Amino acid sequence: MIYGNTFQNCNGSCMYVGTSRAVAMNGNRITNNVLSEGTPQGQARLIFMQCNNYSASCSNNQITNNTITGTQSGETAVWVERDAGAMAGTLVSGNLFKNMSNCVLFGRDTGPNYASKNSGCSVMYTGDGVRGSSIQP
Predict the structure, then answer these.
(1) Cα–Cα dist 104/45, whole Å
(2) In the chain, domain spans
């Protein structure tokens, strides 16, 4: 669990949770953190969750009740990406987004994943080929 931290003036990513090894990375909880982007970085991912090994399992993670502030420079608050392996069941809920270009992105070939009950942003989307993911305000 990553709980109750403050990450200020992040450049690129504030928080990375992922693997490129053949391991199980399931059930992670990222909750009650405060994250803010520093110098505008364009494609920054403030919380970046990635599965990047064909034998890895990266499922049933939760990103909840965080406050995430951007600079309106093209950044994404929560980016969930599966390059290889299994990744499904990620919940993004109860987060407060401030001054973000994009709030939630579920990358291609992930899912199903769920985003709901987040506030402060209407730009939430899924990538191409997302399986059964649901994104609601």
Answers:
(1) 10
(2) 2-126
